[in-house]
Amino acid sequence: MTKYEIILYWSNEDQVFIAEVPELPGCMAHGDTHEAALTNVKEAIELWIDTAKEFGDPVPEPKGRRLMLA
Prior knowledge:
Layout (H helix, E strand, L loop, with lengths): L6 E5 L4 E5 L7 E4 L2 H21 L16
Antiparallel strand pairs: 1-2, 2-3
């Protein structure tokens, strides 16, 4: 599996952990524990990539370093 940066945080509003993949627009998942959120987002990454390939959309290469966010 390719290595994309995952941002994991707690959502007070939803009362779950959220895992986002900034390099794959719209790719995110949630879980009751941080382990569950990470497991779910790994599956979401695979589905995101499979769907992009199916429709001929580009799949970004992982940057391999921490993203800089302002």
